[in-house]
Design a protein that fits this description.
alpha/beta, D-Maltodextrin-Binding Protein, domain 2, 2 domains, 9-stranded mixed β-sheet, two-stranded antiparallel sheet, 9 helices, 25% strand, disordered N terminus
Length: 256
């Protein structure tokens, strides 16, 4: 009798352990990386990762039974990690032909940026929307950013001044090392507020372009499977209205 009970207990314990291991094997380990994008991907002073991109990935991972980890790096480093399969997801890149060769982009973009030029208040420079007027101007751009097809096709002729970061670019504009800074409204308004220079800069119209930001995945087979599954789950968030509420709370513009 004792032997039978022991055998039953052993069998039950073995089954429970098997179920636990099977569940653990099914759950994936997902590393999502990016750089500081205001309201899209940030890290709070207490170390929490916030923003629409982080919130979306958490929800997708939870629905898929995945464990997710976030890290913030310089933009070039984050892109390199996903391209070389050291991370699974890159948060927030705009789509270009060059990038599509390196990453698998999500089916839908999850935010939209207005690309614009900023100048110092009181400056006498102007912009009429004609890119042909930019060559010879001191125009700053942020390293690794793209500004729309029209600008990128003329970039070599425009010969912009490269700033390593948005903060660096705004400092260059303040110091009169450039007369224009090409950037996006979402990041720039937040960064100027942090720097305390909102009253010293102004955005000028017309806008340069609109750019949509995506989740981009590494090119491995496993990443492609993850992308397809997360695309499916993302549609559920979108159709259920959850995504719209999240974006509204953070003040992020959604693509139509």
């Amino acid at each position: 009798m004792f032997r039978q009970k022991t055998k039953c207990a052993f069998t039950f314990a073995t089954f429970a352990l098997f179920a636990l291991l099977a569940g653990s094997a099914h759950a994936g380990q997902v590393l999502a990386v990016g750089t500081e994008f205001a309201n899209v991907f940030e890290r709070s002073p207490n170390g929490e990762f916030t923003g629409l991109g982080a919130d979306i990935i958490r929800m997708l991972a939870r629905q898929n039974g995945d464990e997710v980890k976030f890290e913030i790096y310089p933009w070039a480093r984050a892109q390199w990690m996903v391209e070389h399969e050291q991370a699974q997801i890159l948060i927030g890149p705009y789509k270009t032909v060059e990038r599509e060769a390196k990453y698998g982009f999500a089916k839908r973009a999850f935010y939209r940026d207005v690309m614009a030029l900023y100048i110092r208040k009181g400056s006498d420079v102007s912009w009429d929307g004609n890119y042909a007027s930019l060559p010879g101007q001191r125009l700053g751009v942020i390293n690794g950013w793209v500004y729309g097809q029209q600008f990128e096709s003329l970039r070599s002729g425009i010969k912009p001044v490269i700033a390593n970061t948005l903060t660096n670019g705004l400092n260059m504009l303040m110091a009169k090392r450039v007369d224009f800074l090409a950037t996006n409204m979402r990041n720039t308004e937040a960064t100027m507020k942090t720097m305390g220079i909102s009253d010293e800069m102004q955005m000028i119209e017309p806008f340069m372009d609109m750019q949509d930001g995506y989740l981009a995945y590494c090119k491995s087979i496993a990443c492609e499977q993850l992308r397809l599954r997360y695309d499916e789950l993302y549609e559920q968030l979108r159709d259920g209205g959850v995504l719209q509420l999240m974006a509204r709370r953070l003040g992020v513009r959604l693509p139509p």
